[in-house]
Amino acid sequence: MLTVKSIPAFNDNYIWLIHNKDNHCVVVDPGDATPVLETIDKFGFTLDAILITHHHHDHIGGISELKRRFPSTKVVGPVNEPIPGLTQPVEDGDQVDIFGERFMVLSVPGHTLGHVAYVGDEKLFCGDTLFSAGCGRLFEGTPAQMFNSLQKIATLPDETEVFCAHEYTASNLAFALVAEQGNPHLQQYRDKVIRLRANGKSTLPSTLSQEKRINPFLRCDQPSIKRSVADKAYDNSDLETFAALRRWKDKF
Questions:
Q1: Do 245 and 225 touch, CB atoms closer than 8 A?
Q2: CATH (one of 3.60.15.10, 3.30.230.10, 1.10.1240.10, 2.60.40.290) for 3-251
Q3: Residues designated catalytic
Q4: Distances (CA, A) of 180 to 65, 133, 184, 203
Q5: Which of 11, 19, 154, 244 has the smallest CB count inside 10 Å?
């Protein structure tokens, strides 16, 4: 199993650093090079590769500076998005080797059209597609695209750890508790998150099994969620339930 460290960046981003026992590392979505280089220097790491999920600046802004420090570093990212310094374009079904562990590339459009995720070693690096208790905004894609992307993620093993790119859990829970008021798992999770954040600790990674219990965007087939959006949805389908839920969250 690979070891993952979280590197906080900006107000609420997480840059994920994956390393092996030989002090080589890979970073995911380095929007800012400074905290990455500080961590690399602190632990004496060598940067082998950068994994990118999508093109937003808070996920790619540090690439150029990291490449200046480590010129041979590979930059892996979605084939159809403008990623600076891209050396290994990937798309759905491709595989990436990370220190002997094989990671599958998943196409997960919705937040952006070319967004990808990386899954392997019982870990999912999903950028801004799935958050704990929430999902990404639809900046470029359609509700159907995001719904299908989340459904694809939901087919992964329940024990999969979810490494998303933002500390949005507390604010997402505020909405989730309104969307599904009678869910006891949500109430228990809220108490845990309050304790973690009060102590300055991260709520991530989550697990897919937990998200299936508490994340309303993964529960659009549940009668409780359908009832919550009944006055906002155009029909009772799971897709329209998702779309109505996302529209509601956008204005929440």
A1: yes
A2: 3.60.15.10
A3: 54, 56, 58-59, 111, 128, 166
A4: 44, 11, 9, 20
A5: 11
